[in-house]
Amino acid sequence: MVESKVDIYNVFELRSKTTCYFGVGAINKIKDIADALKNIDVDKVIVVTDEIAYKVTGAWDVIEPALKEKNVEYVMYTKVSPNPTVEQIDEATKLGKDFGAKAVIGIGGGSPIDAAKSVAILLEYKDKSATELYEQKFIPTKAVPIIAVNTTHGTGTEVDRFAVASILDKKYKPAIAYDCIYPMFAIDDPELMKTLPYNQTKYTSIDAVNHVTEAATTLVASPYSILLAKETIRLITKYLPQALAHPEDLTARYYLLYASAIAGISFDNGLLHFTHALEHPLSAVKPDLAHGLGLAILLPAVVKHIYPAQPEVLAEIYEPIVPDLKGVPGEAEKIAAGIENWLFTLGITEKLEDIGFKEDDIPHLVELAMNTPSLGLLLSMAPVKATKEAITEIYKNSLKSISK
């Protein structure tokens, strides 16, 4: 496809199980969404966001008047942090319950939208807590309607059934995946990405690269998840440098956002394995660690470990980053070094030692990876057996640069 021939101002509907309004100006579809809510007797909503995203992106300047015009009352929860916690979800849920909210609008990146999905479940299961939800003490089958207004190009959460939260006292960061938390509607508007900070532009895009690396190589990978993976990496390789150099370039933002969305659909179908399962313990132990940075640190070592089992697929999808691979097992070192060098060109040079982890920390990280609720399912999807030794090796290979 020749990207230059696409009208980025043409707002189209990207349909998975979510109707996602995609394109420059898509935020204006909030009026149609408010009408749809009123048609199902939703007249009160809780807005779940962080302190910055809903304002600095300009999203609220459009959303608030639309809600008022359509007589949809709202209450706001703005305390969501990066790596949201079960305590925050419980606080937001109480606020929503007391207000009588019948739907949830999440505004932000993965953290606010994941928190919004969690609140949507707990508004239906009023006697349950976020800890019970994320420790899988019950299996939800219903949630109030979710509207996801996305402000980053990385997570894909606006078009998938996944959510993540941290249980800080146990150093757990589990994931959930339920059909009831597909958003009813999502908005993917590149205009909302222009204020995304430089590092977050990098880290969220690397999140999408990891999504497809895993989705293309799980035990349940399909031609569909592999096709989306190939296009995701091609687009990110092409447009991420442009977005970093020119943050207000809407074409670059458009294609990074599109890559993120199709990556979300890819792993919604193909699932995930090592990189996410091993990153969650990192940001559970260090909640200030950006998820995408943690993934970037692990990515070369993970690809090195799984390449002998999936050389043809990985050689094909990584061709824009590491060209001329033949797709044979002996290239594991070459592709790992090539991915690491590409990350270095983006200014992502950190390894585990640089962010405060030591070799002595690895046994605890391995234990968390193997025992945190839900992460075992991800590990079971890996193309090679996720033994204690394998996980240890990946963490060790992520302590320092592979190239040195």
Structure in words:
The protein has 404 residues and is an alpha/beta fold. It has two domains: 3-193, 3-Layer(aba) Sandwich (Rossmann fold), CATH 3.40.50; 198-397, Dehydroquinate synthase-like, alpha domain (Up-down Bundle), CATH 1.20.1090. It contains 16 helices and nine strands. The strands form two sheets. Strands 1-2-9-6-5-3-4 form a seven-stranded mixed β-sheet, with helices on both faces. It is globular and about 60 Å long. The two termini are 38 Å apart.
What's the helix-strand series? EEHEHHEHEHHEEEEHHHHHHHHHH
CATH homology group of the largest domain:
Dehydroquinate synthase-like - alpha domain
**If strands are numbered along the chain, what order do they take across the biggest sheet?**
1-2-9-6-5-3-4
Radius of gyration, in angstroms, nearest whole number: 20 Å
Question: What features would you highlight for this structure?
Answer:
404 residues; alpha/beta; Rossmann fold; Dehydroquinate synthase-like, alpha domain; 2 domains; seven-stranded mixed β-sheet
Question: What is the topological layout?
Answer:
Elements lengths: L11 E4 L3 E4 L7 H10 L4 E5 L4 H4 L2 H11 L3 E5 L8 H14 L3 E6 L1 H13 L7 H5 L11 E5 L11 E3 L10 E3 L7 E4 L9 H18 L7 H23 L4 H21 L3 H12 L5 H16 L4 H7 L14 H14 L16 H10 L3 H6 L7 H10 L7
Parallel strand pairs: 2-9, 3-4, 3-5, 5-6, 6-9
Antiparallel strand pairs: 1-2, 7-8
Helix pairs in contact: 4-5, 7-8, 7-9, 7-11, 8-9, 10-11, 10-14, 11-13, 11-16, 14-16
Pfam families: ADH_Fe_C, Fe-ADH
InterPro entries: ADH_Fe/GldA, ADH_Fe_C, AdhA-like, BDH-like
Protein name: Iron-containing alcohol dehydrogenase
